[in-house]
């Protein structure tokens, strides 16, 4: 999420109002949004404003001159402590910034790979398009050849039709051939019908013969079973 200078200023001022000295890490924890680089940039602006508006004014009276050396020593020690804390914060901030840089580098690497893949696909599509365009041209040429061949075939058909018209006996021969085929078909049907009739008669006679044989066997069996 994008953050603004006012949001960073408000977060830093709120931490100051709680009696604490804000750091860029504290501001980031409070905002829970934005990247470390954005927060760091806005936080530096806030620090520069605080430095110009909160410049300490020191006035040393004659009574305090005796303790000036001790005061300076304490101030130096406090500054050293604060600088040490600032260095620690800067180190941690730098670590997070480097992590963000690594993440952005990985994203850039991935996007570069995707771009290269897209370029490869584009080249493949372009090659396929060129191939299809060449095939289309060949197909158009083949169509023209087929048109010429069809024209030639129609001319040959006209010639054949003219030859057929000059031979009317062929139709008569065909009619006679159809009649002969019809007669043969009728004869075949009659023969098949006669064959079926004979087969039915043969089946009836076979059944009658089997029945007569069965009756005869029954009579013989009955005679054999009678007492002598």
TrEMBL record:
Q: Which residues form a coiled coil?
A: 80-194
What are the entry keywords? Coiled coil
KfrA N-terminal DNA-binding domain location is 4-114
- Identify the InterPro entries for this entry: KfrA_DNA-bd_N
Q: What is this protein called?
A: Chromosome segregation ATPase
The organism is Tolumonas osonensis
Which lineage?
A: Bacteria, Pseudomonadati, Pseudomonadota, Gammaproteobacteria, Aeromonadales
């Amino acid at each position: 999420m994008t953050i603004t200078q006012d949001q960073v200023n408000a977060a830093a001022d709120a931490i100051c109002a709680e009696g604490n000295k804000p750091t860029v890490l504290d501001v980031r924890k409070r905002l829970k949004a934005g990247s470390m680089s954005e927060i760091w940039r806005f936080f530096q602006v806030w620090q520069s404003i605080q430095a110009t508006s909160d410049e300490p004014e020191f006035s040393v009276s004659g009574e305090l001159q005796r303790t000036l050396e001790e005061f300076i020593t304490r101030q130096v020690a406090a500054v050293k402590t604060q600088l040490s804390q600032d260095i620690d914060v800067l180190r941690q901030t730098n670590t997070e910034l480097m992590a963000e840089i690594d993440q952005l580098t990985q994203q850039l690497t991935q996007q570069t790979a995707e771009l290269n893949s897209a370029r490869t696909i584009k080249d493949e599509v372009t090659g396929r398009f060129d191939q299809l365009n060449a095939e289309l041209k060949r197909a158009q040429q083949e169509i023209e050849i087929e048109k010429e061949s069809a024209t030639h075939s129609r001319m040959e058909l006209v010639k054949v039709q003219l030859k057929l018209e000059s031979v009317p006996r062929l139709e008569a021969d065909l009619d006679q051939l159809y009649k002969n085929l019809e007669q043969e078909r009728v004869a075949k049907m009659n023969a098949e019908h006669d064959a079926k009739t004979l087969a039915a008669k043969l089946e009836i006679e076979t059944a009658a013969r089997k029945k007569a044989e069965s009756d005869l066997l029954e009579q013989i069996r009955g005679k054999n079973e009678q007492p002598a």
